[in-house]
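User: For this week's homework, look closely at the record that follows, marking any run of repeated tokens, and judge whether sequence predicts the tokens.
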Amino acid sequence: MEAKIFMFESKLSPNQKIKISGFNNLTKVLSFNLYDFCITLNEEQKGQYVNYINDKYNATRIADISRKIVEIIEANILAVSAQDYDPVGASTMVLMSDIKGGGEPIPSAQVSHHLDKSHITAHTYPDAADPDGICSFRVDFDIATCGEIIPLNAINYLFEAFECDVVYVDYVVRGYTRLENGKKIYNDHHFNSIQDFIKPEIKRNFTYMADINMPQDNIWQTKMMVKEMGAENYLLNPHDVNHPDVPMKMELLKKEMKEVYNMIH
């Protein structure tokens, strides 16, 4: 099989391009885990919330988001699988290659000529079972890539595609590639924090942002919690803002968000 030549940023000299040999099993995994919260005032509204989630974040919609990610990171789709669940929730998987082409599917005959294996998986977890009516919607996106692709380049689109109250972002680099002289490279891009990739206008929406970074082990994590907003932002019907139960439910909502942010059990 003909070897491919990759160009990466050298760790020794940030401004110098270095040649990589054909061998490359460097794997980068971005996990984007978000929580969106909602206040419901009765069982009817819980049902309305479930219907809203099923309509807005069904498998077709999640697959479309995944296709956009493929376009952003300049990969190509090999196959797409999508599944809705009864009564709620959805899962999708996109197999992709790092052959450049703006997200368009490539002929299967070409796939055998490339070794890079990448995928995007997504799962949704709506929860309307809380007896106090604090409903939540959680989404997990895992973008696992090999080769030149840097999945962190899709992070701003994920913030824009969803309403995010609490967010956990994890990034891990594993495996290695080689220089032409045989030296191993364990990371082809270097940075201080996942926050370096997030637009300032997005970060301004969050009160709390914390990092747990182990760059020596190629592991990074950023968690974020949105700035405090009015009750109208969490009600299915903004006209319910003067309902007598809303102040109590807002306190329960804040408690729930802080528990999720701090993972208190």
Q: What stands out?
A: Helices lie at 43-56, 59-72, 108-111, 155-161, 200-203, 246-262. The first helix runs from residue 43 to 56.
